[in-house]
DNA sequence: TATGAATGAGCCTTCATTCAT
DNA sequence: CATGAATGAAGGCTCATTCAT
């Protein structure tokens, strides 16, 4: 990917996160990125293809979360989940604008093929986590719970705090200027909550 | 609210859920609702005011979830939470299109004033739940956990399964045609999971 | 003409004077006159016919200016002109909104038939004045000047001060809040100027 | 100013003169100028900004009428006025469509800021003429008359003949097809009338 | 490779008018 | 007689995209 393309994509993420796909005009984007209006079509072919390119480019951070763990056989299942939580929270906090964009997309029924490719990117992680949980259950370390729905609880918690700053601040009783995603204390608090939830819920006794 | 207005709003919810606010044109909507294009502006003044009217009209289902419980002093805290879960899941399954629309809105930074009014509608429920949890903790019935984040887990789980059918089916290993929101078994499964999660996580021993 | 019709016409004059024919919407007018939107079409048939009715109704003040004088044979030509100036200035000051409306119309090439009827209302006065001037010339009382263009100077002076308050105030070095048309001193000043101009220009010696 | 912009403005003047600002649609204009409907907004930003650009561009002819004279100290006051009359009549005959447009604007209360800028363009000439007249009076060459109202008579005469061809022809007893503004004889006649009027009215004896 | 100019399609909205009562 | 509801047409404007250079 050339510098110019990456430059455009970085500004596209910002705008898409703010205004959505339909709400962002190529002229907005060109102005924000300080490039010619024809550049987007020149480099990417169309607004939609720019979006796809952005997804492909930015989704990288989602990969590799699991791979690291599967190599390390010395870890127990609960340790693996702890690592995943830490890794996930860190990565999502750093990529929260893009994260918001792909969740906008999942909420719509436009551009279905794009939805499929997003799901193809996201779901391997879910599957891997499910495998870990099922292994824990099979080993008798974990209680017999509903793995898919526990994963929904896990991801849902992330998303609930990440997707709307206003809602998050309301829940936390913070003033509207507080940006939880830039506060290391909040990050630790979220990680602690999720670990505690999984430990308490999954581990026997 | 007149029949005509309600008729338009009902079709508007469908289209907004599918395509988002910017992605839905008044012409689309007029065609879908089989009314004249000028009707939306005639009845609501503008596309944006139609949206607001829709939110006010449809948000009714969110009210009253909590009020019912606060009257009943015979219930313990965990029983209250159980009732809330049941009530919430039922109501959200029935209003899932609208639910999707307001979550689209929370993801964007367009129309901020509308966001505020959505939050004003949604948050009282969260606050009420937080009060119940904190009361349980104070009474020594519940473990000392992080109430706001537990609520995020609770709502997050709902949203995670409700907001994207595709993602939900992927998680559940269902085929793409399965509509979980119309399957009573799935509804029960979700309710059971959430009750189990809260019971296990909150109750001592 | 019914009271209702006259009521509407009176508000129509105000709005047309302010915003012009195309710039005034029937909804504006209905709101201003506090009648139903359908009333204009109900009473007048269309917006254009309302305009025509307004012209016919309001043009009455222009009639009779000359008739009064032609009866009185005891007046000299210059005395007749003096009377006409007084009468004209008084009537136009009282009907300046309508006066502005018909001059808007004369400036456009829309609604040509209406222009004709306006001219048919206005021109008899000009013709009568021309006759007076030509009689004066024939009698040797007036200098031999160009009657049509002198009439242009006469009407042109009226219009120049009447049609734009801003322009008028600029010329008079008044502040923008001054309303010359409501100041009796200004009226006298205008009459004096026109009389002086005609006397000096027309009378020999 | 690019050729394309000027091309659009030239057709805009025609249409605005014919139909007024509100009566002229961008689609009309695009068709007349044989350009795309989006061109007006592309070049000027909006219909209103096109209008302003037109005023700025076309008003040039009004400037410089006076400046020429103020340099020449050898001219007497009455000679200066004679030159001004000639210059004004010539320029206004050549720009009569635009002249009509700005007088439409002065008649309305829409777009007040534009009115101000028109007055700022027009009034310097009036002020300069007033100075000449007042100087003449002070020197004892001119009779003591009412300068602002004499200027109203001067400009009013121009406007009276220029603004409505129909009215003008009626006054002159010409048939409706006669176009006075293209007849050099009429131009001379107008100039002669105005010079005669000013000479007779202003000069002592 | 890069871009300013240009465009057709579509947007939301307002319009004068008509209709059913 | 009067009016609230409803409508097709047209309004100004913005859009993603294409084109000539």
From TrEMBL, chains A, B, C, D:
Pfam family, one: TetR_N
Keywords per UniProt: DNA-binding
InterPro entries: DNA-bd_HTH_TetR-type_CS, Homeodomain-like_sf, HTH-type_TetR-like_transc_reg, HTH_TetR, NicS_C, Tet_transcr_reg_TetR-rel_C_sf
Annotated region of DNA binding: 25-44
An annotated Gene Ontology molecular function: DNA binding
Keyword Ribosomal protein assigned: no
Positions of the HTH tetR-type domain: 2-62
PANTHER family: HTH-TYPE TRANSCRIPTIONAL REPRESSOR SCO4008, TRANSCRIPTIONAL REPRESSOR
The name this protein goes by in its record: TetR/AcrR family transcriptional regulator
Annotated organism of origin: Panacibacter ginsenosidivorans
Lineage: Bacteria, Pseudomonadati, Bacteroidota, Chitinophagia, Chitinophagales
